Amino acid sequence: MISRAQTILLVLLVLGSLTMGTVLFRMRERAHQRMLTGQDTAPTQAPAVTAPQQATLMVANDDDNSLRGEVYSLPLPADPGARARAVLGKLLDLYSAQDSNHPISGGAASIEQVFLLPAEGSKSVSQGDAGPELAVVNLKSSFAASHPSGLETETLTVLSICGTLHANLPRVTQVRFLVDGELRPSLAGHADLTRTYLTADAAQADAAHP
């Protein structure tokens, strides 16, 4: 038969175990929360940028369906992908301005990401060689949803993006488009987004309007 003292000791042991389990559970939950919010407490590293540099933007004009090269001084990141996103962000900021000749809402926030890959059909090159590149431009769905519909205005947008990429990253010879990371049949019902665009197409459009 268990004595009263043994019963009290057993109860204390059970209570101690329960208390310790509760403490350990709360500590684990707090550690998990710190891990999830670590990005908020860790210092944010800003993208490496150089002094302002000249960037050429191929700006669309709906008045005569043309592309015009315009030079801006921009602080550009050193990383090519980030640089591509920066120049396209400036281009779309111009289109979202009130006095734009090619009005599109959204601005720089419409660019989700730009990826640079070896160009389709290009021969493999040894490490360190500079071969032609394919730029994959990932747009946000809000940009496509608010883009004016029409073959000419959509084509001008696509070609201005292609031309701006090539003007600032000459190795980019091809461009493909995604919307929210997915293939989309068209930009706003007309410009085909399932194909690969050549940056040379934008150069020809610019040359057609001297």
The structural domain count equals 2
Question: Which word captures the global form?
Answer: elongated
Helix content: 40-55%
Mean pLDDT: 83
**How many strand segments?**
6
Fraction of residues in β-strands:
15-25%
How do the SSEs run, as a string of H and E? HHEEHEEHHEEH
Query: How would you sum up the major sheet?
Result: 4 strands, mixed
Tell me the Rg in angstroms: 28 Å
Ends apart, CA distance between termini: 106 Å
Low-confidence stretches: 34-44
Strand order in the largest sheet: 3-4-5-6
Which structural class do the helices and strands define? alpha+beta
Number of helices: 6
Summarize it.
41% of the residues lie in helices and 20% in strands. With 210 residues, it is α+β, with helices and mostly antiparallel strands. It is elongated and about 100 Å long.
How would the blueprint of this fold be written?
Layout: H1 4-36, H2 38-41, E1 53-61, E2 66-74, H3 80-96, E3 111-118, E4 133-139, H4 141-146, H5 151-168, E5 172-179, E6 197-198, H6 199-207
Parallel strand pairs: 4-5
Antiparallel strand pairs: 1-2, 3-4, 5-6
Helix pairs in contact: 3-5, 5-6
List keywords for this structure.
alpha+beta, two-stranded antiparallel ribbon, 4-stranded mixed β-sheet, single chain, 20% strand
Written account of the structure:
The protein is of the alpha+beta class and 210 residues long. The protein folds into two domains: 4-41; 53-207, no CATH class. The chain is built from six helices and six strands. It has helices at residues 4-36, 38-41, 80-96, 141-146, 151-168, 199-207, and strands spanning 53-61, 66-74, 111-118, 133-139, 172-179, 197-198. The chain has a four-stranded mixed beta sheet with strand order 3-4-5-6. Strands 1-2 form a two-stranded antiparallel ribbon. Helix 3 (80-96) runs antiparallel to helix 5 and helix 5 crosses helix 6 (199-207). The radius of gyration is 28 Å and the shape is elongated. The protein starts with a helix and ends with a helix. The relative contact order is 0.13.
